[in-house]
Amino acid sequence: MTRTPLRPLARVLDARAKGENPKVIERENIRQRHEKMKDRARARAEGRLLVLGLFFFCAFSVVGVRMGMLATSEAQEPLASAPGASIAMQRANIVDREGRILATNLDTYSVYAQPPLMIDPIAAADQLVAIFPDLDKERLVKDFTGKRKFLWIKKRISPEQKQAVHDIGDPGILFGPREMRLYPNGKLAAHILGGSGFGREGVSAAEVIGVAGVEKKFDDYLRDPANGNKPLQLSLDLTIQAAVEQVLYGGMKIMNAKGASAVLMNAHTGEVISAASLPSFDPNDRPRPPTSGFDPSDSPLFNRYVQGVYELGSVFKIFTAAQAVQLGLVNSETIIDTSGPMKIGRFPIGEFNGKNYGKISVADVIVHSSNRGTGRLALQIGSKRQQSFLEALGMFEPTPFEIVEAAGGAPLKPKKWGELSTVTISYGHGLSTSPMHLAAGYAAIANGGHYVSPTILRRNGPQYGPRVMSENTARQAQKMLRKVVTDGTASFAEVKGYDVAGKTGTADKPKPRGGYYDDKVIATFATIFPAYDPKYVLVVTLDEPSILAYGEKRRTAGWTAVPVAAELIGRVAPLLGLRPRLEPEASAAITLTSN
């Protein structure tokens, strides 16, 4: 910057030459310099005032707009933020095929203590034990008066319990918000739903995670906020499930069975409309699994229709007959010699109660449930072709049913599949599967020859898998199964208006350390209905049934599982929308007389 001297030499000399005072020049220059400095300061001040004015204008504009928005919006109560709320997750509902709630969420509270803040810990312990009788008073007093700074008292409490705890009035007893999983139907469909528990948790929040059933299988979906809390829709029908469990429970008690299961499946879509396992449990208060010294099937948590892997007996005979027909070896009228003796190596193949049916048709082999007849068909088929057919029916892998327990229900097959295994497996011994496997196999017969994968999810329309038999084979198998009900071992299965077709199976129950019990069986009845237009498959299994009839103790499926299945079909068929087909009654004979 160029600075002007206050006393420029040229002007001073000129002033002296003219006789003027040189100091006047200096004072003038000082005045001019000060005026310039004031002008610059004024300009800076005006700029700052302009910026400050713009800032206040924007601030008041934002405040004014916000006040206007609040004035025109609906009033809401402010919510206080809580530390740790980031772990609280809203879990989607689970609904049945009609949208009825199976599992939902309920806001509740936990109660915890901070002993350093407590005023009278002993009195508080007394009152807490009065509210929660399962608490240990001595333990509470020890914790309250010891060195602990924090302890849970109850993870979930009811509103009434919260009020009672609040009335204690001790500042060291505090509450934390919780979201709990609620199953409003109690035990209904318990093994499907499974249950839930708490994952990560703090005093202000906790996440709910699935621990079994579909709750665990679809845990990621149910917890994913990207789904917008869209419910998980199952194929179950709540009304039909209630009817099935009620009838099955009554049948289990009447037949003095240790346990029971039932699977009702749409033969064309694979949808499981109902699946029940008894005894059951309440997922709202899920029991702990047994740790040791128990047979897994003794626990109510044991899921019999996917984890109950047993030799299911004669219900497998229809698969052998169907494969023989499919291969062109026989048809339903082909005569098979079932006469004895029959031996495979050193092992004799006998019939139930030592019967001998002689030469009978393939259809009658199924009607009379002949072991030797089925075994001779299996020998014609051969072990390799038999294995291939059963594998196509899904009998060698865990069922793809979408609950976590299904993965544990892997079938048990022989290590060496020789001629003896070929014969015994043909009538349901030597290969252990679950009722769900059996339902999928019978669905292939019912729907015209396609394998369908059992599913717990709602489907729209048929979901046919690969073809495992021709339509003609499936039709002949259906007729054989129908004849079992009209002329054979399942005569108690006849339900008026609904033509029932099915096969009985009674298998000796294996001992834990090898061999079989003489007086314990697994009784099964696998059925398709209505036989004139098959739509559904029903498999009923009773564990160790026994009933006294006509002075004798009966354990076979024809006396135990069949009547239960018939009662089930009579109850659920109308609920499924199936109209009974009734034969018109003969007109009463009328004699006309003249007056």
List keywords for this structure.
17 helices, alpha+beta, Beta-lactamase, 19% strand, 3 domains, elongated, 595 residues, five-stranded mixed β-sheet, five-stranded antiparallel β-sheet, Penicillin-binding protein 2a (Domain 2), 18 strands, single chain, 35% helix
Structure described in brief:
The chain is of the alpha+beta class.
What does this structure look like?
This protein is an alpha+beta fold and 595 residues long. Helix content is 35%, strand content 19%. The protein has three domains: 1-56; 86-233, Penicillin-binding protein 2a (Domain 2) (Alpha-Beta Complex), CATH 3.90.1310.10; 240-288 and 297-575, DD-peptidase/beta-lactamase superfamily (Beta-lactamase, 3-Layer(aba) Sandwich). It has helices at residues 9-18, 23-72, 121-131, 137-145, 159-166, 190-193, 213-217, 219-223, 238-254, 317-326, 362-367, 371-381, 383-392, 419-426, 435-446, 471-487, 561-575, and strands spanning 94-95, 101-113, 151-157, 173-182, 195-201, 206-212, 232-233, 259-266, 272-278, 335-337, 343-344, 347-348, 359-361, 501-510, 516-529, 536-543, 547-549, 552-554. The radius of gyration is 41 Å and the shape is elongated.
